[in-house]
Design the sequence.
């Protein structure tokens, strides 16, 4: 088996006086979708933000593509090929959809084939191509946020709750786009509360509790075992 | 052609386009359209302050960086020309050497301030720039042997640019070196403004806007925020210094009050805010209105006071001595009614 694209080893992260991550160990295999699951407040978002460098890890190690990036600045991590889609739709409201997308291209101009693919996955972005991103609806903003991360091929995508608060029709658009990204062989670490999306996309899963990863395994195994779900997350996937 | 000159950034409002055209025509034809030295001096100041305010807009409106050191860079450019002209004697070479050295000094100082201070939070950066600008103003005042201290420096500029150079008559106006000097200021200001417009509409300008909105997001896409902010500070300082050089060439005098004072810093801030931050055209409208109000409000109030002399209280309120109070009232009203600046408001009207 090839070396994982990302390994977290004993990662500890504090936010102010709170000790949020308490030794996270996690591996994200290449070319697979790894679901990061768990109840609210267990440290899933903090894990993604620590990988990206928004929160500095107090101790532990982040190995990405064979390189220790634990102390690298945020921009260097991005340039090394990590694409991050935050939970709060980090789009630039005053810029147009086009300008947002062009900003996502840090290594060269916008690739026409990639643009065509993204506009077919998210047709609304083509309709509002020259509009200010601040005028888009919540779902469209989320599409733009994801499309901007995908506008260049990245080695690893960190995506935080892409379907949160979206209408069912938009959830299926989003899930389809993620499926296409997966089909291209991308490595993805995905935090997702919508279990049907998680079940459909995930190859492997890691469940967190109290700032640690408490279970790792195949997504299919977790999806099939209601007892395991109840024990790990306090609820069954069937009910959601 | 025009769209290309404007770097694709059109005014996007009919009224704004008209206002800008009127300003451009009035400034381009000022020596022939308006009588008197005062009118020409006002037009030259408008040209210079448009560039100065626009360079501050690059920093504040596009980069979201609050700096109180902008007059320092303006002053460096002005003192560069003054010192070169004082030491090298009158000549275009002195103007060139002075402008270039003032600009280089401004860039180096901006680079140092940027690299050492842009990592801190915005409010601390603003405080640091205030401290550095105050320190430089004190230094200029203390080294009076070199800078003329509080009295400033008076020097000679090439004869070709002074009133003594008479070149005949055109359209009933005596063409003198002073008019040539005005067109030097006007042309340089126009080029610098178009250059700024090009910068803010370039990929660099877009990244700056992205950083202003959300610096972490820009960093997470892969842009080195500190590098972009430092570059913006240097570019803005260079253009401010060049505006200072033009001011020195026009005035033939520099002093702390005319180039380095905190009052001018506040004026620039008001010009940008009233005109509309992050629009560039806001600097044109803001600087023009501000300089016109500063120059002519007193006269206007004198006439209004006389016209209302029969009424009680009103003539006292309109007494020309109270012009600063009315200028203040005008600013409060404009910020209240135009929270996004005049340009922002005009564009909103079009959008709705």
Sequence:
């Amino acid at each position: 088996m090839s070396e994982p694209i990302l390994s977290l080893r004993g990662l500890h992260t504090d936010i102010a006086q709170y000790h949020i991550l308490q030794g996270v160990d996690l591996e994200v295999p290449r070319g697979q979708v790894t679901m990061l699951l768990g109840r609210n407040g267990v440290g899933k978002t903090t894990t993604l933000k620590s990988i990206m460098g928004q929160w500095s890890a107090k101790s532990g190690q982040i190995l990405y593509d064979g390189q220790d990036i634990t102390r690298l600045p945020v921009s260097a991590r991005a340039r090394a090929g990590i694409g991050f889609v935050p939970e709060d739709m980090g789009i630039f409201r005053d810029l147009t959809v086009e300008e947002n997308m062009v900003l996502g291209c840090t290594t060269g101009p916008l690739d026409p084939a990639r643009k065509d693919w993204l506009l077919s996955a998210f047709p609304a972005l083509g309709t509002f191509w020259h509009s200010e991103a601040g005028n888009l609806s919540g779902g469209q903003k989320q599409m733009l946020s994801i499309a901007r991360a995908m506008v260049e091929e990245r080695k690893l995508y960190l995506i935080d709750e892409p379907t949160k608060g979206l209408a069912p029709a938009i959830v299926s658009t989003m899930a389809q786009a993620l499926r296409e990204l997966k089909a291209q062989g991308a490595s993805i670490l995905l935090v997702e509360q919508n279990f049907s999306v998680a079940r459909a996309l995930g190859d492997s899963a890691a469940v967190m509790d109290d700032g640690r990863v408490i279970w790792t395994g195949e997504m299919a195994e977790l999806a099939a075992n209601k007892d395991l779900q109840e024990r790990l997350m306090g609820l069954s996937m069937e009910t959601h | 052609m025009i769209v290309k000159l404007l770097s694709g950034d059109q005014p996007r409002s009919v009224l704004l386009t008209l206002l800008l055209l009127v300003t451009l025509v009035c400034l381009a034809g000022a020596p022939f359209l308006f009588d008197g030295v005062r009118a020409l001096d006002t037009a030259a100041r408008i040209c210079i302050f448009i560039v100065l305010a626009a360079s501050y807009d690059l920093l504040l409106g596009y980069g979201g960086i609050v700096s109180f050191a902008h007059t320092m860079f303006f002053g460096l450019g002005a003192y560069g020309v003054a010192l070169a002209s004082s030491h090298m004697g009158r000549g275009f070479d002195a103007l060139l050497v002075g402008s270039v050295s003032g600009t280089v000094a401004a860039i180096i100082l901006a680079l140092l301030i940027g690299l050492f201070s842009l990592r801190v939070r915005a409010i601390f950066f603003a405080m640091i720039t205030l401290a550095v600008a105050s320190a430089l103003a004190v230094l200029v005042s203390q080294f009076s042997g070199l800078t003329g201290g509080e009295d400033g420096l008076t020097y000679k500029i090439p004869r070709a640019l002074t009133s003594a150079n008479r070149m005949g008559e055109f359209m009933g106006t005596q063409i003198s070196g002073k008019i040539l000097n005005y067109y030097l200021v006007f042309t340089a200001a126009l080029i610098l403004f178009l250059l700024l417009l090009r910068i803010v509409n370039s990929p660099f300008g877009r990244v700056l806007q992205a950083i202003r909105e959300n610096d972490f997001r820009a960093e997470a896409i892969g842009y080195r925020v500190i590098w972009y902010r430092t570059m913006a500070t240097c570019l803005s300082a260079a253009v401010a210094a060049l505006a200072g050089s033009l001011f020195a060439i026009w005035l033939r005098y520099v002093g702390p009050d005319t180039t380095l004072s905190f009052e001018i810093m506040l004026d620039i801030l008001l010009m940008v805010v009233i005109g509309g931050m992050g629009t560039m055209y806001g600097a044109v409208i803001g600087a023009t209105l501000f300089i016109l109000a500063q120059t002519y409000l007193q006269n206007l109030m004198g006439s209004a006071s006389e016209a209302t002399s029969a009424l009680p209280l009103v003539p006292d309120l309109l007494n020309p001595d109270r012009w600063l109070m009315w200028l203040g009232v005008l600013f409060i009203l404009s910020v209240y009614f135009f929270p996004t600046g005049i340009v922002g408001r005009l564009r909103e009207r079009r959008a709705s």
In short: Residues 89 and 247 of chain B are 18 Å apart (CA to CA). Chain B touches chain A through 18 residues (CB under 8 Å).
